[in-house]
Amino acid sequence: MIDQDQNQLGVIPINEALNRAREVGLDLVEVSPMERPPVCRVMDYGKYKYERKKRQKQAHGAHVIVLKEIRLRPKTDTHDREVK
């Protein structure tokens, strides 16, 4: 278990971990369920969810490439093509 100040508290029974989270008014969140024993963290889950969604939006927005469209016709002059 990891507390809200990022201190590792070691392996703690689930009831005790839930009680500690309730005492400080935060949530007990399982951050890596595949580990043995599973790692849980005391945090504000709503804030965590908001920040994770915000990071995903920023990462998604960074990969967008905007393409410009240029129309050329047979009548387009050489100078105009060089400028475009």
TrEMBL record:
Coiled-coil stretches noted in the UniProt entry, renumbered to this chain: none
Species this chain originates from: marine sediment metagenome
GO biological process terms held by the UniProt record: ribosome disassembly
Domain Translation initiation factor 3 N-terminal: 2-59
SUPFAM superfamilies: Translation initiation factor IF3, N-terminal domain
Pfam families to which the protein is assigned, alphabetical: IF3_N
GO CC annotations on file: cytosol; membrane
Protein name (Swiss-Prot/TrEMBL): Translation initiation factor 3 N-terminal domain-containing protein
GO molecular function terms noted in the UniProt entry: ribosome binding; translation initiation factor activity
